[in-house]
Amino acid sequence: MTEKKDDMQNLSDEKGQAGSGRARIPNHRTEAEQRARDLLREAVRKFTNIDYIRPEDIPDIPLYMDQITTFMDSKLAACKRYPDDKILTKTMINNYTKNKLLPPPEKKKYSKEHLLLLIFVYYLKDFLSINDIKTILEPMEDNHFQTEDGLTLSEIYTEIFEMILGQSEYMTKDIIRRFDMAKHSFPEAEDKCSEEDSDYLKMFSFVCLLSFDVYVKKKLIEEVVDQMNAANARREETAKAGEEARKRAAKLAEAKKRAAKPAGAQKKNAKPADWQGAYSQSTRKEQDGE
Questions:
Q1: Is the Cβ–Cβ distance between 50 and 77 less than 8 Å?
Q2: Secondary structure (H, E, C), 86-100
Q3: Most buried residue among 44, 54, 109, 170 by CB atoms closer than 10 A?
């Protein structure tokens, strides 16, 4: 935590060190750089202050949909970009249930496990499709949703988010490092471009550095999801082939059973019909006086 505070302090240490006599950088350029650093410092402050909903903060009693949306909106208010943004709506919940991202409620009430899944969906939906999220969370629902065997969903949730929060210090340092890289980009722009354009190019460099990182990680996540889909397809194909093999085996066993029936049993089954036919023929002859 001390190192993180030192990094934040370093963002404000470079204030207008242009010098008294030989400074070539105008004061307003230094002010522009300082504004950029102030912007970064505020962004990092918001990032480091982002908390998550701890499992012990989630009510153990089932909640109605209105209570769910109110709870999520209050607990994740710090994640909003704009004050009017909605963290979760009734329409979202219904769509998640319809697309099988979320198990249906019980008597219109949602459990603690429902809430934990909704939080995962909230963080994933900004950069993954509904189908990708479904692929990721489906095993979670099958193996850990409202089960007493193995790890509970609360235990998994706690482990994942504590691990993520443990990365916040590294991510803060990495963001500051990228900002410093961008600040020193386009050195020739000071002579070839206006001061405003030069400042814009540096900020554009910073955005591109961050964007490329997001792009690469998103592609990596999509590759992992594709591998999960391929594994699921193989399991389904294997299960389908096994079911067809069982059906064929059952038919073959039935055919063998019929073929193994004694021949005498078949003749025995035919005798009553032959006897009845012979009796009817004899009776007719007697009636005709033969």
A1: no
A2: CCCCHHHHHHHHHCC
A3: 44
pTM for this entry:
0.71
User: How many angstroms separate the CA atoms of 275 and 57, rounded?
Assistant: 86
CB burial of 121-151 (b: ≥16 within 10 Å; e: otherwise) equals bbebeeebebebbbbbbeebbeebbeeeeee
Q: Residue 125: give the domain boundaries.
A: 55-150
Following DSSP, what letter does each residue of 199-248 receive, concatenated?
HHHHHHHHHHHHHHHHHHHHHHHHHHHHHHHHHHHHHHHHHHHHHHHHHH
The residue written with tokens 């999220």 in the block is 133
Residues near 97 by beta carbon (within 8 Å), at least 6 away in sequence: 103, 104, 105
pLDDT tens sequence for the chain (290 residues): 444 445 545 554 443 333 333 333 344 455 767 777 777 777 777 666 666 788 788 888 999 999 999 999 988 888 888 889 999 999 999 999 999 999 999 999 999 999 999 999 999 999 999 999 999 999 999 999 988 788 999 899 989 988 887 887 888 889 889 988 998 899 888 889 988 898 899 889 999 999 999 999 999 999 999 999 999 899 989 999 999 999 999 998 888 888 887 655 555 554 454 545 554 555 555 555 55
Residue 64 covered by a domain? yes
Report the amino acid identity of residue 238. Answer: T
8 A C-beta contact, residue 225 and residue 135:
yes
In a domain, 261, yes or no: no
Residue 75 lies in a domain: yes
Whether 132 is covered by a domain: the verdict is yes
The first and second tokens of residue 166, run together, are 């443990």
Structural domain count of the chain: 1
